């Protein structure tokens, strides 16, 4: 009888660990999806920039590698809502910092450099890394 209780208790504990690890994985996937959606918004807004001879092209670092520093850069012009882009980039950076801590992310610690150049072709930005 005691052996049955011990076996049943052990089975319940193992099953609990299994269930909690599944929840953690689902939550991590949800966090990744949230980052991906925000990244899409950032890139879509930045890519809607128009450019020309009299329009200033800028780059914005955003995100956070686990070792520190930005995880990416985006090029844009002032033909878009720059405040919205900066807000989205700040939100992404904060979210990625939390994600890295929550999931104990390890990084390669390589510096992510900005674009080597950004050119204008047919009114659209062309980023060269």
TrEMBL record:
It comes from the Bacteria. PROSITE patterns: PROKAR_LIPOPROTEIN. This is Lipoprotein. It comes from Pedobacter helvus.
